[in-house]
Amino acid sequence: xxxxxxxxxxxxxxxxxxxxxxxxxxxxxxxxxxxxxxxxxxxxxxxxxxxxxxxxxxxxxxxxxxxxxxxxxxxxxxxxxxxxxxxxxxxxxxxxxxxxxxxxxxxxxxxxxxxxxxxxxxxxxxxxxxxxxxxxxxxxxxxxxxxxxxxxxxxxxxxxxxxxxxxxxxxxxxxxxxxxxxxxxxxxxxxxxxxxxxxxxxxxxxxxxxxxxxxxxxxxxxxxxxxxxxxxxxxxxxxxxxxxxxxxxxxxxxxxxxxxxxxxxxxxxxxxxxxxxxxxxxxxxxxxxxxxxxxxxxxxxxxxxxxxxxxxxxxxxxxxxxxxxxxxxxxxxxxxxxxxxxxxxxxxxxxxxxxxxx
Length: 358
Known about the structure:
Residues 1-175 are annotated as: CPSase. Keywords: Amino-acid biosynthesis, Arginine biosynthesis, ATP-binding, Glutamine amidotransferase, Ligase, Nucleotide-binding, Pyrimidine biosynthesis. This protein has helices at 39-43, 99-106, 116-126, 149-153, 187-193, 230-241, 251-260, 346-357, and strands at 2-5, 10-12, 14-15, 25-33, 51-55, 59-60, 80-82, 85-86, 110-112, 129-134, 159-161, 176-182, 198-204, 216-219, 246-249, 263-280, 286-298, 306-312, 318-323, 328-331. By secondary structure, it is α/β, with parallel strands linked by helices. Helix 6 (230-241) crosses helix 7 (251-260). The N and C termini lie far apart (57 Å).
């Protein structure tokens, strides 16, 4: 199997995932992740929809895959996987299957034997590129960001989680009602919001909650270009008019900014790892964060009354915004981790404390 890049580069490798039928290709945006561990959680992150992921860590698959039901979504979300070396013999007490079997069962192709260091350097120099996996050369490449990827990964029905949701059983009798817009929400976000005092109402990306009874709004992570989520942005603006407390994560940071009147832009190669340093602007404290995004908020376009909350210590890009007077805030990174450090899990606690005071 070969990986074809938009610039004409052809990279050959050995397929250890699902087979691609003759004459067919799997298309996606080729991106890289520098995390050392966490591939089961990462591959099930809906923010990766439409992407062919290059893992820079040289050995992948050595600890297998745990029960897929315990991961971040119901299935593998990536379009394809590229690694340097695949470990066929896995060893971990919690492993239920090999990475190869999981990929094959999920219909996701993967190639090994690739110089991922050289490929990553190419992507860093030229930016992310469109690519295709297959046996035959591809002349036309398809950009997944031209589609509404959020609509593809968002659920179709509303779900509710209450005090018993620490075990993720359905319930709806917590006193604080939080509408959570699922644009591709990771499961650990639900676990982080589900407390004895909350009812989490998980809704599709385009669900009109403007007439619903709720106390606060949460905007989740998700894939693709945030400007595609026109209906979501409209509904967020309604919540702002009603002065509802708001917390956003990842794509939620970008959607909140767009609802406020700011602009977003595409990063050259994005941030995808579990070791991104982010500085809180007022305290100048640096936190190590987990990230997976290709777009960012243009901080120069933030309207009056808004301020940067966090910035990326590597490239200075925005990592969070908040309003100076209103109960609206968001971060570009993932405080829920999975995978990654839990240094910023306090953001959920602070948000919930705010709701108790309202």
